[in-house]
Amino acid sequence: MSFEIVSLETIQEIAHQYGYWAVFLGITLENAGIPLPGETITLVGGFLAGSGELDYWFVLGWAIAGAILGDNCGYWVGRWRGWPFLLAIGKLFRVQEAKLTEVKSQFSRNAAKAVFLGRFVALLRIFAGPLAGIARMPYWKFLLCNAAGAATWASVMVSLSFFVGQVVPLEQLVSGVAKFAIIALILVVGWVVIPIWWESRQADNL
Questions:
Q1: Average pLDDT in the 132-154 region?
Q2: What is the residue-averaged pLDDT of the chain?
Q3: Alpha carbon distance 189, 186 (integer Å)
Q4: Top-confidence residue, 201 or 172
Q5: Membrane-spanning residues where (predicted)?
Q6: How far is CA 6 from CA 13, 18, 70, 166, in A?
């Protein structure tokens, strides 16, 4: 997900200066739960590889490594302290613990899909790891889904900017990917919230 507080020009300057380290650290921190524009950094890395400034396979390798490491950090933070923190946030916004427990159960039932596919969804890429930890997803299962999702996501992003970036302006490419991620987020939120709302309405009518 792209953030206006970090311009594309700034990200390009950082990538030019630090190369593979910028790709690795940007994605690691984003997947650990820090809202940095890791997706944009990955696209910029692939674009620079397409222009010959970086090596495609090194960009891809560092992107995968950063995504795996970052999500692992997020998972353990969520597993150790995530639930008490979530309850505190819930009290702040007057969300009942029962509702949070219901959302937690919903995520647990779909944790594997969320970890694997969540990388293509705005915000979920940042919070999938911590949420998996909060939901107590078995670590071996998380690790498998995390690695598979990281490899798939990084391959798509790096390859997209490597090839398409040669014929489409980078700004347009980043904007298009961000819009896709936001649409995916809206669909996911609807998929989670609507059933809960419907069940709650049905219960009130009884």
A1: 91
A2: 81
A3: 5
A4: 172
A5: 56-77, 114-135, 147-168, 180-198
A6: 11, 16, 20, 23
Tokens of 84: 């008490």
Nearest partner of 15 among 150, 146, 50, 35, judged by Cα: 50
The helix (run of H) or strand (run of E) holding residue 166 is none
Taking alpha carbons only, the member of 155, 140, 146 closest to residue 71 is: 146
The type of residue at 174 is: V
- Alpha-carbon gap, residue 139 to 142, rounded angstroms: 5
Number of Cβ within a 10 Å radius of residue 17: 9
Token pair recorded at residue 163: 């090839």
Question: Does residue 60 surpass a pLDDT of 90?
Answer: yes
CA separation for the pair 114, 188 (Å, rounded): 10
Q: How confident is the model at residue 3 (pLDDT cuts 50, 70, 90)?
A: very low
Other beta carbons within 10 Å of 102: 15
What span, in angstroms and rounded, lies between the C-alpha atoms of 189 and 118?
12
pTM: 0.78
**pLDDT tens track for 154-192:** 999 999 999 988 788 888 888 888 787 778 777 766 665
